Amino acid sequence: MDKIDVAVVGAGPAGLTSGIYLGRARLKTVIFEKAIAGGQMAISEWIENYPGFSEGISGQDLSMKMREQAVKCGAEIIEDEITGLKNPDNIFILKASGGKEYQAMAVVIAAGAVPRKMNVPGEEEFVGRGVSYCATCDAPLFKEKTVVVVGGGDTAVQEAIFLAKYAKKVYLAHRRDRLRATKILAERLLANKKIEPIWSSVLTGINGDKKVTSAVVSGRKIECDGVFIFAGIVPSSRIVKELVDVDEAGHIITDENMNTSRKGIFACGDVRKKSLWQVVTACGDAAVAAVSAQYYVENLKGTAY
Q1: Are 147 and 170 in contact (CB under 8 A)?
Q2: What sequence ranges are listed for the domain FAD/NAD(P)-binding (predicted)?
Q3: CA-CA distances (angstroms) from residue 234 to 29, 248, 272?
Q4: What is the DSSP string of 18-73?
Q5: Which of 92, 113, 163, 220 is most deeply packed, by most CB within 10 A?
Q6: Up-side HSE of residue 57: CA atoms within 13 Å toward CB?
Q7: Cα–Cα distance between 47 and 45 in angstroms, integer?
Q8: With contact defined as beta carbons under 8 Å apart, do 37 and 43 qualify?
Q9: Residue 284 main-chain phi, psi, to 5 deg
Q10: Domains of the chain (ranges, CATH numbers)
Q11: Cα-based distances in Å from 79 to 32, 46, 48, 62, 82
Q12: How far is 143 from 134, CA to CA, in rounded Å?
């Protein structure tokens, strides 16, 4: 069983930032990632509100820069999913999907979140056949086609604007009578002639045969080729739900130092309960979580200064 100082679960902006800080602290740190480094950040077309990039930067480029920095600072990245976590005798045992186990003195949960599904008729059936949760990934498949975007926050608006670069028509269905997105994004969407908002409306069904042919929005049938759903996120906290306190939605509850209810487990980023889910706040969380984990491990080793 490999022994490490700190195991970081997730290589999104929070996990990678944790790796930077822990690596600089000269702790043996391993970041586990089941998909790609960067998480949801990596599939964002363009990020304009991260400090230091006045012209913006693609999510993929920012992810690669953070990954390179974490590795340069000494963190190791292992592409494997952590499927189990136990806490016997004041140590942590992490089990990976391939069956290998790792022993750690502390754990930073930075597993992020996944898109929330609406569970309307046809949604599950047509995933990959017209239903998508990532415009950046799938927009080129809808060139000169009609799509429906569901949501009114920053992500939904950004993705609708991106889709409009490819699609001939974009409908934006939002349950309220105004957008929740940042004003500058809302202004861009409302100025885009290819995008038509459908206010105070709810997606109630998705129809099709081999692929999506229409969507039902508050009783109105809209002929379309795709439906993009941005209805929020679900925290990826499954492996720690039996070990730490979580809220009703599954977000991990922490204090201001990112301590959870279990000593030695810290949480940061989208997986924890907070009011603003952004790349910059994930990085801030992670810096605090990493320093807290550092002090915790150094105290256990008797090397704290």
Answers
A1: yes
A2: 5-284
A3: 27, 11, 11
A4: HHHHHHHTT--EEEE-SS-TTGGGGG-S-B-SSTT-TT-B-HHHHHHHHHHHHHHT
A5: 163
A6: 17
A7: 7
A8: no
A9: -65, -45
A10: 2-115+233-301 (3.50.50.60), 131-229 (3.50.50.60)
A11: 6, 25, 28, 19, 10
A12: 15
Angle at which helices 13-24 and 59-72 cross, to 10°: 20
Single out the residue of 302, 258, 296 nearest to residue 91, CA to CA.
296
Opening angle at CA 202, ends 197 and 208, nearest 5: 95
C-alpha to C-alpha distance for 204 and 213, rounded to whole angstroms: 14
299's tokens: 């105290």
Position 155, amino acid? T
Full pLDDT tens readout for the chain, 305 residues = 799 999 999 999 999 999 999 999 999 999 999 988 998 898 887 888 899 999 999 999 999 999 999 999 999 999 999 999 999 988 999 999 988 999 999 999 999 998 899 999 999 999 989 999 988 788 999 999 999 999 999 989 999 999 999 999 999 999 999 999 999 999 999 999 999 999 999 999 999 999 999 999 999 999 999 999 999 889 999 999 999 999 999 999 999 999 999 999 999 999 999 988 889 999 999 999 999 999 999 999 987 55
**Encoded tokens for 281:** 């706040």
